[in-house]
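Consider the following input, taken from an annotated entry for Glycine reductase (Sedimentibacter acidaminivorans).
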Amino acid sequence: MVKEIERVGIPVVHMCTVVPISLTIGANRIIPAIGIPYPLGDPNLGEKKSKKLRRQLVDRALSALQTEVDGQTVFEK
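Applying the prediction step yields:
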């Protein structure tokens, strides 16, 4: 679905816990997430630190949406 949405001109960010799967399906903008049970947070960090972590991931995704890419790109920290 990611490729089809981008095909019509809408940029997409794929946030995932297993980057090789995203690469296999052809996602162009990939953000590695934290872990399978909690991809966008870590309950062991506590509420404030987990919220900060989620904000960092969303900020990275927004930045990736604004970045022109030529093929698959993994946006690390």
